[in-house]
Amino acid sequence: MATDRSGPGRTSSWDDEFARFFGERAHSLRATAYLLCGDWHHAEDITQAALLKLYLAWPRLDHRDALDAYARKTVLRTFLAERRRPWRRREQPAETLPETGTEPGGPEQRLLVLKALSAVPPKQRAVLVLRYWHDLSVEETAAELGCSTGNVKSQSARGLATLRQRLGPQFHEILEATTGKGR
User: Fold this and answer.
1) To 10 degrees, the CA torsion angle through 165, 169, 174, 180?
2) RNA polymerase sigma-70 region domain: which residues (predicted)?
3) Residues 6+ apart with CB under 8 A from 120
4) What is the pLDDT of residues 103-150, one digit of tens each?
5) pLDDT tens sequence across 4-42
6) Taking the model in full, what pTM does it have?
7) 104-183: CATH, from 3.40.50.2000, 1.10.10.10, 3.40.50.720, 3.90.280.10
8) Would you say 118 and 38 are in contact if contact means Cβ atoms under 8 Å apart?
9) What is the 8-class DSSP label of residue 132?
10) Would you say 166 and 123 are in contact if contact means Cβ atoms under 8 Å apart?
């Protein structure tokens, strides 16, 4: 941890505050990053980059009550910025979905939804994660992404259409069992 100018070996109060926030929220932010990118190692990279940005901005943050939303937005923007880089290898969707013979809601179904989610374009994926994983309203999602509510609605509809196409006729059943939510 960085030391402040108050004396050797002493840490600043905001360092301690950030360390507490990190301990409480890093796992949740990493899970969000995983939902966005579909790879735990890449999710760890996104989370680390986002937390570094957050750490650098920490002393300037005035609204401590909105830190969760700010941190989540930082993860989203880090993910989207990374996807714009031309050198980044893009995932290619598979031609066919694997057959599953398990009950909806099991780990296989969850993996199937996550794989299908990886075929959704990044901005649509961000909308779906915020709307259906974090259970944010259309307005809250628009505020986090810095776009209009109409954009959130259209991105959500397009993303769900891609998921429907990838998951086939069992879409509603799988999605409901996996997320606990219907449409």
Assistant:
1) 90
2) 28-88
3) 128, 159, 162, 163
4) 445 677 777 778 788 888 888 888 988 888 888 899 999 998 899 999
5) 444 445 456 778 888 888 899 999 999 999 988 888 999
6) 0.53
7) 1.10.10.10
8) yes
9) I
10) no
Rg of the Cα atoms in the chain: 19
Q: Let me know if 82 is exposed, middle or buried by CB neighbors in 10 A (0-12, 13-18, 19+).
A: middle
Higher confidence at residue 112 or residue 53? 53
Neighbours of 141 (CB within 10 A): 24
Helix (H/G/I), strand (E/B), else coil: 3: strand
Pair of tokens at residue 89: 């290898």
- The residue behind tokens 């980044």 is 88
Torsion angle of the four alpha carbons 139, 28, 23, 74, in this order, in degrees rounded to the nearest 10: -50
